Amino acid sequence: MTVVVLRIAALVYALSAAAYVLHFIRPRYQRAATAGQALLTVAFLVHAVSIGFGCSEFGGAEFFNLRGGLGMASWLAAGALLLLLRFQRLPALAAFVVPLVLVGLVPGIVGNIGSHHEAVPEVVRLPALKLHVSTAIAGVAVFAIAFGAALMYLLQEREVKGKRFGVLFTRLPSLQTLDQLTQRLVRVGLAVWSVALVTGMFVAEKAWGKPWDPQLLFAVVVWGLYSALVWMRQQGIHGRRYAVLTLVGFAIIMTSMLGLRAVPELSQHQGDFGRKEAMR
To answer: Which of 32, 57, 82, 131 is deepest in the core (most CB within 10 A)?
Structure first.
């Protein structure tokens, strides 16, 4: 049932993305943006139902691996985007972010999520692990939206510097709006990521007997990069360099989430906390 509901959510997300992209291409179709937001709200709620089924059927353990984590990050990103759209009318941002949300659901809708029941490992019951996973996923979600805003900034900057003032220029928000939005998202993401980093070290010690792992080292690099971005903003440095480094930070996050797991036994952080003894 979890996969069925998740696939329904993915379908509605796809319809929302199509509506927002249509509005981006044809801004005069105002109803497309309205429909996109309505569909995004429905998809978010259906996605929440699938998460509820996942917790009921599999004890929540599914959300501690990469597949479930990406799905949860997509859900949080969709929720954060809806909250942002409530205060700022930025349908162009949604045209960039909703497809990212949909991509995050792909592993869950094509894989065998929860194909077998297993006892939930004792370490998964630790409040610190729950806090670590939730804040790490929330951080990824916020940084994903910052990625979308930074990408839009670079596209808009190219239009302005080239004095083209074409389709993208009229569709995208102003450089100032995108710059401010990116730096605010980076600040929020960094605060959440800091909690995830500290709790992650504690959980790693409990699960594997040591606080350090390549995955955690990448997390420290990400924290350092986004901290540098906050410092740069305080020094009045922003614009293109800020946007590029925001993209680099998210690229590092995705590399650590996907790339490290592609190399067998490189990282112990595989989402399988039940293998504590074998991994020591």
So the answer is: 32
